[in-house]
Design brief:
The complex is a heterotrimer. By secondary structure, chain A is mainly α. Chain A has 17 helices and 5 strands. In chain A, the strands form 2 sheets. A 3-stranded mixed beta sheet of chain A has the order 2-1-3. Chain A has a two-stranded antiparallel ribbon with strand order 4-5. In chain A, helix 5 packs across helix 10, helix 5 packs antiparallel against helix 15 and helix 14 runs parallel beside helix 17. By secondary structure, chain B is mainly α. Helix content of chain B is about 75%, strand content about 0%. The radius of gyration of chain B is 24 Å and the shape is globular. A 6-stranded mixed beta sheet of chain C has the order 6-7-8-3-9-10, sandwiched between helices. The chains are: A mainly alpha, B mainly alpha, C alpha/beta. At the A-B interface, helix 8, helix 14, helix 16 and helix 17 of A face helix 8, helix 9, helix 14 and helix 16 of B.
């Protein structure tokens, strides 16, 4: 499904890009050799554990000799690079790029683990968990920007959602807290919508207003109440639910189906949003408003209303993502606790080409690096975790520069619609 | 007859005068600040426990207590930012130098707080004038502070006259480099500077964290903080302790003047403003868009870098993780408040400096968290960004032409 | 209110329509009627109020006065949706299609059905059938960006037919089409009237109006000068007179003068367009001092790219541009300007001027780096203001002060600012792209006179225009461009030959068949 969705735009691969990509694939092969393969003892073994911690089932470890595996990856990458240079993969270039990148990461991991062991399942599971707020943030961005409103206030909406979720959740119960968090995101989104749609303010400035406001008000209220009265900041957390049958699938089950409600909600949102945007009347209208509002207007679609609805839905989504921090992860509110995750969500949306499945992919990739940075110390890799954490930002900048192919942002994104 | 004529005339004149005031963009600015302060007062009142206690007594009592809470807050804010007049009088009468310094310190401390705002505000304003939204002042400030601290820490035995300019230059170049990258990406690939500067912010945070935990950490301490910089690199302070007022403030004013000259008096500035107004027209008229964009982002980043350098050399004398606390983001608000004009930026920066310094005092005496300042700033910024709100609330007239609209290039990068 | 006795056969009747915009009375008590099954041309100059009137009918604007009757019943449209529901569909000059979506998606956009899920496969075939019924073939699954302009227009028409439109308003539908495509469009229009649809055809091109329309209504400056009359054997001259209010002088006072040396020559230039596809395929031409050379062609055949290559805004992939005997391929825009290249761009607001800057800033835009405007690093604003004042007088630029931002200027004034800037630069070569588009008659004459004065002063001028009559009246020679290639060059004003070349027949071939 993601295939058909991603390809509803021009997929013209220029000769320059074909060559650049070919060199990139070759380069990855060479780097794998230069950095990793040369460094590995011929008889070293890599051990991956395939069962995350705390899981009932036990799978045998995956043990393989490091060097042959690396050599296999190197040869494969170079082969793909050569084919790309000579014939080209055309439309599938990005797919191959993903494959080669995966090779690189896998090679790196295998090298770093050689002579030791790494819990691969735990790493993947942790990557998924870290991807949840990023992806939900990105989906919030998708909703807003598909209708033509730039939302850089995801961070602020998430922070507010986190605060309101913790506060209301403490006073009442988890579900009402969640509901209030979602609502608070929607309220801020309504402010963004009014500023940018009604008053036609610059949308980036409007987003900045909300970010500054959210940081201020949550810190203010937190300092004034939550820190003073601890019982106001103790909402508890949503419990982990093991999905019957699915959770028992070896390896995959514990990674995907043993989480709290937020992860399952993410699955649901992904499907709902993909179907909604690309296969329903509502989606067609929303996308048209983001691409060519005037055309939509002449056909009787209310551009303003469509944008209001999308932005407010996006706010609900961000509020939900914010609640994850307090109700799904930490169990309490701390000042500025989103720590830029909203902005990484924005990055994931761009990296994911303004589409839900792509955003999830980007979220997973970013989450993976986040998870990996926590393991770096264990692996004794000479890369500081701070450098590892820069990856999402760097990747987004590279994506934006058009190296991986220019993204297809909605054509009218960020432009106020002026009705005549 | 003639009398009533005159009265009529007078009325007409007053009407015209009111009309003019009503249409002036300055009115909107002032009312935006005023409305922001009112909202802040409301927030204080609404979150005050005393007010909730008073609700049980009577409505009148509630209002009185609410007014009282807001009044006390702003009084604390005023005393914290300007000083307590009674105390100043008393100190001067006593003639005790130390007492005088302590009494007037709040005022000077506010100017100290204003200084990085001036630099960072100029950075954002310069970007706006060239049609660029530099949302990355915060990151550029961090990098500028880092390069400055390297020069100020490790170069030894230089006279101050050389060391200080060198350290400032390092900050300028460091921040400038951090602005240059998104500028170059924008000019060459069309990658939007808003996203790139946001990303560069976080890269800067991570980088400075890494450096402060590793190579730059004070070897004698445990916390992620550098050692104190060389005395020769410190910015000159005008008074003895506790007044921290230093020459950085005047350097900032001088920079504002330079930016004014650059933008409005030189051929370069003409190019930059034309590129900002319409890059297509600029290209057609033979101007180099790539160069203008890159130069503008470099200068903008450099100014933000100076804000960081100023904090290191003038105030903290060292560099710690997360030392800036939001100067870079606030500067967006104050660049808009100052209509992206250097003079306006200076005035707005001084206002913000006083607010910030007063808020610190307010937190101590009135128990109002300092974060209320962010709420105030957000409200002011919202009113500036949507002047129609202010015009509706205060029933102002629409101006015939809005000369000061900020025009930014589209999200798409062209 | 006077009710037309023949009201019953009128599909549309508009009575006393008034529409004001700030500072403009766009429609001043306009009456208009449309009969069932006719093609009714709405004729008028740019800015005469044709589009405004039709936007009122299509529900985009709400009139400040007057009533619209549909099938004899008064209606009041709040939105285009209301108009469409009443069977009135407008096809705008700039197509209202979403490029990234398919034909079917574009047609279904805004409709109530399908209610929820898009069931595209089902609707694809419905739309293909509809197209066949009216003789319009379009692939319903194609994305709009893949279609040619003519095909996109068909999608627009289908969109309205699918909505059950009985009345189609077509806003300058031929402006973007090549001549054969125009023939195809006319056939489609006739097929539709044969099936009982009524069509309003907005145009300012006399030839087309006489060719296709049954009746004509002429607007001038917001008023009707000729209410719906049978076209019969009205001559074009008569129509033109109704349109502009006086005899149109198509023959300007162009003095005979021998051309001088070649100033600009373009040799075998190739280049790509924004999408990376070939836009110019071996263009060669030259312009000599003291002559105006016209470049004719339907819009979008490489004129814009050629202008950009000459002015330095686009790099050619092959070939060279020579100015005064020096190859300028690798010179920057600024160096070209310094060597005497003047350029009047077609897009006055997005390319020609910086809207938020003042008149002064805009007129010094190309000379602020050199004395007397520049003094070292500084801009001498006193000198700049003086210069601007001088141009304001000399070129009749009507502004309160030279400090006024140019975005507050009218089209004609804006063009005068640009002309003042370019001509005051004393160009040796002047490239004029569509210099009169969208201007009123007086302003057009002014532009023509200035161009001819430059010619007499010895400048070499390349005039690119879609207005053939203007081109022929001003030019000494005319090149014709088609799909990035020069079809040939003519010195006599043979419209037939030029027309054939505009549709892609090279001159050599025309002469061959003519001789045979």
């Amino acid at each position: 499904m993601a295939e058909t969705v991603a390809n509803n735009h021009l997929t013209y691969v220029s000769p320059t890009r074909q060559r650049v990509m070919g060199v990139v694939f070759l380069g990855i092969g060479v780097v794998l050799w230069f950095l990793f393969a040369r460094d590995v003892a011929p008889d070293a073994l890599t051990t991956y554990r395939l069962t995350p911690g705390g899981s009932a089932q036990e799978l045998p470890n995956w043990v393989f000799p490091t060097l042959p595996m690396l050599n296999f990856l190197i040869i494969f990458s170079i082969g793909l690079g050569a084919y790309q240079l000579v014939r080209g993969f055309g439309k599938r270039t990005n797919l191959v790029l993903g494959l080669v990148t995966a090779f690189f990461i896998f090679g790196f991991l295998s090298w770093a683990t050689s002579g030791g062991s790494l819990n691969l399942a735990g790493l993947f599971r942790s990557a998924l968990v870290k991807a949840v707020p990023l992806t939900i943030g990105a989906l919030s961005g998708v909703l807003c920007e598909r209708s033509g409103v730039v939302n850089i206030a995801i961070e602020g909406m998430m922070l507010t959602g986190a605060f309101v979720g913790a506060f209301v959740g403490s006073v009442t119960n988890l579900w009402i807290g969640l509901f209030a968090a979602v609502l608070s995101g929607g309220v801020l989104a309504a402010v963004l919508a009014v500023l940018s749609i009604k008053y036609k303010s610059d949308q980036i400035i409007a987003g900045t207003v909300i970010n500054i406001f959210a940081t201020g008000i949550t810190s203010f209220l937190s300092a004034k109440f939550l820190q003073k009265y601890q019982y106001l900041n103790d909402p508890g957390r949503f419990p982990t639910i093991k999905i019957p049958v699915l959770a028992d699938i070896p390896f995959v089950g514990p990674i995907l189906f043993q989480h709290n409600m937020f992860v399952y909600a993410l699955y649901f949102f992904l499907i709902a949003l993909t179907v909604g945007l690309y296969y329903t009347r509502w989606g067609l209208r929303t996308r048209s408003v983001g691409e060519h509002p005037k055309a939509a207007d002449t056909l009787g679609i209310n551009v303003y209303r469509t944008r209001y609805i999308s932005v407010i839905l996006g706010g609900f989504m961000a509020g939900f993502g914010g609640a994850y921090f307090t109700l799904g992860s930490v169990g309490r509110f701390d000042e500025v606790m989103t720590a830029g995750r909203g902005f990484i969500g924005l990055a994931a949306m761009i990296f994911g080409n303004w589409n839900p499945i792509g955003s999830f992919g980007a979220g997973l990739l970013f989450g993976f690096f986040d998870a990996l940075s926590a393991k770096v110390a264990i692996l004794k890799v000479p890369i500081p975790s701070e450098i590892m954490l820069m990856f999402p930002y760097l990747a987004t900048m590279i994506a934006l520069a058009g190296v991986v192919g220019r993204g297809q942002m909605p054509a009218a994104d960020g432009q106020p619609y002026e009705k005549e | 007859m003639s009398n009533s004529d005159k009265a009529q005339e007078k009325k007409k004149f007053a009407g015209v005068f009111l009309d003019e005031i009503s249409k002036s963009p300055l009115t909107v600015t002032i009312l935006a600040i005023f409305s922001g302060l009112v909202l802040g007062g409301l927030l204080v009142a609404v979150t005050s426990e005393d007010v909730y206690a008073a609700v049980r007594v009577s409505f009148g009592e509630t209002l009185r207590v609410a007014w009282d809470a807001a009044w006390r807050t702003y009084k604390a804010l005023f005393i914290g930012s300007v000083g307590d007049p009674a105390r100043i009088m008393a100190a001067f009468q006593s003639g005790d130098a130390e007492a005088i310094r302590r009494a007037v310190n709040p005022f000077f401390e506010s100017l100290v707080q204003s200084t990085p705002y001036i630099f960072a505000g100029l950075a954002v304003a310069l970007g706006f004038r060239v049609g660029l939204f530099n949302i990355g002042a915060e990151g550029q400030l961090f990098i500028g502070a880092t390069t400055t601290v390297v020069v100020a820490l490790f170069l030894k035995g230089l006279p101050a006259i050389i060391h200080v300019p060198l350290a400032l230059l390092a900050g300028f170049i460091g921040g400038g480099f951090w602005g240059f990258i998104p500028g170059w990406l924008k000019a060459k690939t069309g990658g939007h500077e808003v996203i790139n500067t946001i990303m560069m912010n976080y890269i800067a945070f991570r980088l400075s964290e890494f450096l402060l935990r590793g190579p730059l950490k004070n070897p004698e301490g445990y916390s992620p903080i550098t050692a104190e910089i060389q005395d020769s690199a410190k910015l000159w302070r005008f008074f003895e302790s506790p007044i921290r007022f230093h020459i950085g403030f005047f350097i900032a004013l001088f920079c504002a003047y330079l930016v004014y000259l650059l933008l409005f008096k030189t051929t370069w500035g003409f190019t930059l403003r034309t590129v900002g107004s319409n890059p297509h027209a600029a290209r057609y008229a033979g101007m180099n868009i790539v160069k203008s964009t890159v130069v503008a982002m470099f200068l903008s980043g450099g100014l933000a870098g100076l804000a960081g350098a100023n904090e290191v050399l003038g105030v903290n004398h060292n560099l710690a993780v997360a030392f800036s606390s939001g100067y870079g983001f606030d500067s967006i608000a104050l660049a808009l408040l100052g209509k992206s004009h250097p003079l306006g930026v200076v005035l707005a920066a001084i206002l913000f400096g006083f607010l910030r310094n007063g808020a610190i005092q307010m937190q101590l005496t009135a128990g109002i968290p300092i974060d209320i300042i962010s709420v105030l700033q957000a409200a002011i910024l919202a009113f500036i960004a949507a002047p129609a709100i202010i015009r509706t609330i205060y029933r102002l007239k629409e101006p015939e032409m809005d000369l000061d609209t900020i025009t930014l290039r589209g999200w798409g990068g062209n | 209110m006077a009710v037309d006795s023949s009201n019953h056969e009128n599909v549309i009747a508009m009575r006393g329509i008034v529409k004001r915009f700030p500072g403009v009375l766009a429609n001043d008590h306009v009456d208009f009627t449309l009969r069932r099954g006719e093609i009714h041309a709405l004729l008028g100059e740019n800015g005469a109020g044709k589009s405004t009137l039709m936007n009122v009918l299509a529900g985009l604007y709400r009139p400040d006065g007057g009533v619209v009757f549909v099938n004899g019943k008064p209606v009041s449209f709040r939105s285009p949706r209301d108009a469409i529901d009443a069977g009135i569909g407008m096809i705008h000059q700039h197509f209202m299609l979403v490029p990234s979506q398919t034909v079917t998606e574009n047609i279904l956009l805004g409709l109530d059905k399908p209610r929820f899920r898009m069931r595209l496969a089902e609707y694809d075939s419905i739309i293909a059938d509809l197209g066949e019924r009216f003789g319009m073939h379009v692939d319903p699954r194609a994305h709009v960006w893949q279609l040619s302009v003519g095909e996109q227009q068909r999608v627009e028409i289908l969109k309205m037919l699918y909505r059950g439109a009985e009345v189609l308003i077509m806003d300058e539908p031929t402006a973007v089409l090549a001549p054969q495509e125009i023939d195809g469009l006319f056939e489609t229009l006739r097929a539709m009237t044969a099936k009982g649809k009524s069509i309003i055809f907005i145009s300012h091109k006399l030839g087309e109006v006489t060719a296709i329309a049954d009746r004509v209504t002429v607007l001038r400056r917001g008023k009707v000068t000729a209410p719906g009359f049978e076209i019969g054997n009205t001559t074009r001259q008569e129509l033109a007179q109704l349109m502009v209010g006086r005899e149109v002088v198509f023959h300007l006072d162009r003095k005979e003068q021998p051309p001088g040396d070649v100033v600009l020559s373009v040799e075998d230039v190739h280049c790509l367009n924004d999408k990376g596809l070939p836009a110019l395929r071996g263009v060669s031409l030259n312009v000599r001092a003291g002559e105006i050379v016209g470049l004719a062609g339907v819009a979008g055949n490489g004129q814009r790219e050629l202008a950009q290559v000459i002015s330095g805004l686009r790099k050619p992939t092959q070939g060279k541009v020579v100015l005064n005997g020096v190859e300028i391929n690798n010179l920057s825009v600024r160096k070209r300007i310094r060597r005497g290249l003047g350029y009047i761009p077609e897009d006055r607001t997005h390319v020609g001027t910086a809207p938020n800057l003042s008149v002064t800033d805009n007129v010094i835009m190309k000379k602020y780096r050199r004395p007397p405007i520049a003094r070292g690093w500084m801009v001498d604003m006193t000198a700049a203001t003086e210069f601007a004042e001088k141009l304001k007088e000399g070129y009749d630029i009507i502004v309160p002060t030279v400090e006024t931002p140019v975005r507050l200027l009218s089209g004609g004034n804006l063009q005068r600012v640009i002309l003042a800037r370019e001509i005051s630069g004393e160009p040796k070569f002047l490239l004029a792209m569509q210099p009169t588009r969208g201007l009123d008659v007086g302003a057009i004459e002014g532009v023509h006179r200035l161009l001819l004065a430059q010619r007499e002063a010895g400048a070499a001028i390349l005039l690119v225009s879609e207005e053939l009559e203007e081109l022929l009246a001003l030019s000494d020679r005319v090149y014709v461009i088609y799909e990035g290639e020069i079809m040939g060059e003519v010195t006599d004003d043979d419209l037939d030959v030029i027309g054939q070349m505009m549709t892609g027949t090279p001159l050599a071939e025309i002469q061959k068949t003519g001789a045979a």
